[in-house]
């Protein structure tokens, strides 16, 4: 009966959209094809759209209700595909796909750039002291830990103690790596002051990349112990797989290595060139605003590129999973929520 109702809603929406360019709406499915990098890139541009941060509680309720009406075949006449896609975009940007609960604004993927850019600027400030290095690395990994936890695969409950252990491990690893690299640079007597300053600017990348891997693994270690849910093509639960959990964490860790590359490598290169211009030499007060703009541009480019490497709902062959899961379904492949 539910399938018939959904089909009726789809037909109504299709009729209402005969003159628009929006593709036919599919509940729970991405608007853009996830088999290509470009399709995933367009999909995640929607996910990280900062405009969704300003969606009101009333608008969110309306979006959720519109999707419920579509699901149950009670969609009012005249609703367009574009309205349905917009409603789904709002829901996906604000609510966790597993728990259906609101994600705290600074830890949503749509808030990652606005709330993360000031931290990136702080990480790349020249002439860092030991105290400032520790502070910015701590703040960065604290933000990352909360983002990782808020956007994790939440099909299995995770105790608060796991979060605390993962958080402490991520922060300690980040601070240790960053401080250790800074000490090595300071003791490198062969470097000229200018070279030392340039090298110091690149220290945040290996520190952040290494710590990001630790952060993801430690924050989501419970998934490796408990496994994550895998679903068949019809969305039916097949079982809980530790192998799928390993794939999910590996894919997420790779994105966290790629993510800081443009953010922490490009700005130092760009700023080293801009600092030589007559404008900035004559107006040194513009250095920080200029660096902030460069970091914002690099962040805005890096985030969608990094998270587009893999689909959020990743697919894996059942033959690669545990025997009991392979026996539980006739599907050749199953899907799982990788997390973001």
TrEMBL record:
Membrane-topology descriptor: Multi-pass membrane protein
Low complexity biased stretches: 1-22
Residue ranges, annotated region (Disordered): 1-27
Alphabetized UniProt keyword annotations: Amino-acid transport, Membrane, Mitochondrion, Transmembrane, Transmembrane helix, Transport
Keyword Manganese among record annotations: no
Subcellular localization(s) per the UniProt record: Mitochondrion membrane
This protein's record includes keyword Mitochondrion: yes
First-listed, main subcellular location of the protein, grouped into a coarse class: mitochondrion
Transmembrane spans: 166-185, 197-218, 257-274, 286-310
InterPro entries for this protein: Mtc
UniProt family annotation: Belongs to the sideroflexin family.
Protein's UniProt name: Sidoreflexin
Organism field: Galeopterus variegatus (Malayan flying lemur)
């Amino acid at each position: 009966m539910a399938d018939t109702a959904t089909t009726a809603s789809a037909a109504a929406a299709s009729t209402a959209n005969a003159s628009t360019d929006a593709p036919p709406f599919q509940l729970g499915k991405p608007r853009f094809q996830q088999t290509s990098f470009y399709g995933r890139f367009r999909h995640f541009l929607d996910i990280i759209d900062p405009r969704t941060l300003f969606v009101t509680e009333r608008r969110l309720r309306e979006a959720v209700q519109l999707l419920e009406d579509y699901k149950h075949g009670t969609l009012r006449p005249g609703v367009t595909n574009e309205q349905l896609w917009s409603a789904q975009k709002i829901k996906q940007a604000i609510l966790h796909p597993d728990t259906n609960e609101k994600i705290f604004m600074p830890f949503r993927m749509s808030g990652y750039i606005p709330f993360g850019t000031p931290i990136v600027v702080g990480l790349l400030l020249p002439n860092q002291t030991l105290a400032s290095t520790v502070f910015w690395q701590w703040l960065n990994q604290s933000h990352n830990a909360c983002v990782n936890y808020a956007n994790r695969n939440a099909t299995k409950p995770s105790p608060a103690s796991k979060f605390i252990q993962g958080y402490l491990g991520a922060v300690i690893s980040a601070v240790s790596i960053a401080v250790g690299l800074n000490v090595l640079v300071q003791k490198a007597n062969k470097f000229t002051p200018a070279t030392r300053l340039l090298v110091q600017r690149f220290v945040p990348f290996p520190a952040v990349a290494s710590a990001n891997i630790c952060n993801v693994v430690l924050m989501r270690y419970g998934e490796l112990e408990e496994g994550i849910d895998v679903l068949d093509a019809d969305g039916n639960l097949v079982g809980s797989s530790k192998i799928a959990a390993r794939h999910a964490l590996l894919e997420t860790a790779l994105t966290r290595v790629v993510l800081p590359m443009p953010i922490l490598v490009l700005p130092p290169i760009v700023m080293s060139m801009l600092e030589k211009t007559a404008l900035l030499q004559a107006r040194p007060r513009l250095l920080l605003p200029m660096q902030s703009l460069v970091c914002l541009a690099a962040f805005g480019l890096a985030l969608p590129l990094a998270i587009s490497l893999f689909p959020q709902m990743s697919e894996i062959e059942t033959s690669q999973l545990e025997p009991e899961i392979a026996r539980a379904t006739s599907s050749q492949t199953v899907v799982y929520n990788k997390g973001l």
